[in-house]
C-alpha cells in the first residue's frame, strides 16, 4: 500500500455517510499517535476553565486514580466509535457516558466546549505536527462526529461546520480561561500520570516537553510559566522532524490497526468497568433519539382521516 493510498480512498468517501469509517482510518491508521496527542491536549484545555476544573478537582478522580480516569475517557470514546456510533455497542457506550454525567449539574455550554476540544484539538495537532495535513473530507468527518456525539449526549447548539466549532472554542476560551488553584491541582495530577509512562530518568524531560508544546494562554490559566523559546523550538522541531521521517515510511498495513492499550486494564475491560465505581448503580436512560422514537405514534395509533377502526376487544376476530 502506497503512503497516500488511504488519502485517495478517503477523498472518494462521503463524510456525511462515512464519518465513522473516516475517523477509524484517521485514528487507527493514518495518524494514531498524533490523534491521541491531539485528544490529550484537548483534555488539558478543559482544566483552564475553573467551572470545569473545580468540579473535576472535587471528584478527586485525577488525584486518586489518574491513569484510570485517562484510560476510561479514551476507552468510552473508542467504544462509541469502534463499530459505528449507531451500533448497539456505540449506543451502549453513549448511555453509559450519559449516566456518569447525569450525577452532576453541568452547563450545556461547558459540555459543548469539551466536545469542541475533541473536534478542534486533533485537527490542530495533526496540521501542526502530522506527516500531512488533514484533507477536507477528514475535517468534515471530525465535524460530523462532533455533531453525532452532541445528538447522543443531548448537547444543544452544536455548530454545523468545523469553522463553527473552532470559533466557539476560541471565543469560549477568551471568556472562560482564568487561573484557579483547582486548575493547577488537576493539571499537576494529569502531568504526573503522563510522566509515569516514561522511565523515571526521562520524566522531568517529558514534563518539560509537554509544557513547551502548550500555548501561553493555556499555561497562564493552569498556573504555569511560559517555557523558554529554546525549549518551545526544540520540542516543535523534534516533532516536525518525526513527521518528515514518517512521510517517507510505508503506510500502516491494514491488518495492524492501532488500538487502545490501557494500562489500567491489561487483561481487557467491560463497559461497566469504565468510569467511577458508582456509575454502574445508576439507571441507564435512553438516548435522545430513542426517547423521540418511543414518543412517536405508530400507524395503528394514528387513525387515517375518514377511516373507522373497530374497537379492540382482546378477542380474535372471526
Features of the shown structure:
mainly alpha, 14 helices, 318 residues, disordered C terminus, 63% helix
Give the overall average pLDDT.
91
Q: Sheet bearing the most strands, described? A: none
- What's the overall geometry? globular
Q: Which structural class matches the secondary elements?
A: mainly alpha
* Spatial separation of the terminal alpha carbons: 67 Å
Beta-strand content estimate: under 5%
Q: What radius of gyration results from the CA coordinates?
A: 23 Å
Number of strands: 0
Helix content: 55-70%
Low-pLDDT sequence parts: 304-318
Order of helices and strands: HHHHHHHHHHHHHH
Give a brief rundown of this model:
The protein is mostly helical and 318 residues long.
Textual characterization of the structure:
This protein has 318 residues and is mostly helical. It is built from 14 helices and no strands. The chain has helices at residues 5-11, 15-30, 32-46, 50-59, 61-82, 88-101, 108-129, 136-153, 162-176, 181-195, 203-212, 216-222, 229-248, 288-295. Helix 3 (32-46) runs antiparallel to helix 7 (108-129). Residues 304-318 have low confidence and may be disordered.
Summarize the helices and strands and which ones pair or pack.
Layout: H1 5-11, H2 15-30, H3 32-46, H4 50-59, H5 61-82, H6 88-101, H7 108-129, H8 136-153, H9 162-176, H10 181-195, H11 203-212, H12 216-222, H13 229-248, H14 288-295
Amino acid at each position: 500500500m502506497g503512503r497516500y493510498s488511504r488519502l485517495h480512498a478517503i477523498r472518494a468517501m462521503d463524510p456525511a455517510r462515512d464519518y465513522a469509517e473516516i475517523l477509524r482510518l484517521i485514528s487507527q491508521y493514518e495518524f494514531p499517535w498524533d490523534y491521541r496527542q491531539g485528544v490529550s491536549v484537548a483534555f488539558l484545555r478543559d482544566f483552564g476553565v475553573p467551572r470545569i476544573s473545580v468540579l473535576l478537582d472535587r471528584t478527586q478522580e485525577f488525584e486518586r486514580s489518574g491513569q484510570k480516569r485517562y484510560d476510561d475517557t479514551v476507552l468510552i470514546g473508542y467504544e462509541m466509535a469502534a463499530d459505528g456510533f449507531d451500533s448497539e455497542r456505540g449506543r451502549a457506550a453513549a448511555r453509559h457516558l450519559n449516566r456518569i454525567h447525569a450525577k452532576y449539574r453541568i452547563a450545556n455550554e461547558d459540555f459543548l466546549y469539551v466536545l469542541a476540544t475533541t473536534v478542534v484539538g486533533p485537527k490542530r495537532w495533526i496540521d501542526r505536527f502530522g506527516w500531512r495535513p488533514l484533507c477536507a473530507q477528514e475535517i468534515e468527518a471530525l465535524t460530523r462526529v462532533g455533531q453525532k456525539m452532541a445528538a447522543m449526549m443531548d448537547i444543544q447548539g452544536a455548530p454545523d461546520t468545523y469553522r463553527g466549532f473552532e470559533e466557539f472554542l476560541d471565543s469560549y476560551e477568551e471568556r472562560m480561561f482564568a487561573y484557579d488553584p483547582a486548575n493547577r491541582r488537576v493539571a499537576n495530577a494529569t502531568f504526573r500520570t503522563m510522566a509515569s509512562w516514561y522511565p523515571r530518568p526521562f520524566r522531568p524531560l517529558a514534563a518539560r516537553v509537554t509544557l513547551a508544546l502548550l500555548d501561553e494562554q493555556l499555561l497562564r490559566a493552569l498556573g504555569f510559566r511560559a517555557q523558554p523559546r529554546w525549549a518551545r523550538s526544540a520540542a516543535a522541531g523534534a516533532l516536525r522532524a518525526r513527521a518528515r521521517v514518517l512521510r517517507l515510511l510505508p503506510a500502516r498495513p491494514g491488518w495492524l490497526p492501532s488500538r487502545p492499550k490501557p494500562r489500567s486494564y491489561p487483561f481487557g475491560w467491560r463497559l461497566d468497568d469504565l468510569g467511577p465505581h458508582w456509575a454502574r448503580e445508576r439507571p441507564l436512560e435512553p438516548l435522545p433519539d430513542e426517547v423521540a422514537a418511543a414518543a412517536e405514534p405508530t400507524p395503528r395509533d394514528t387513525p387515517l382521516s375518514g377511516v373507522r377502526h373497530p374497537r379492540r376487544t382482546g378477542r380474535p376476530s372471526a
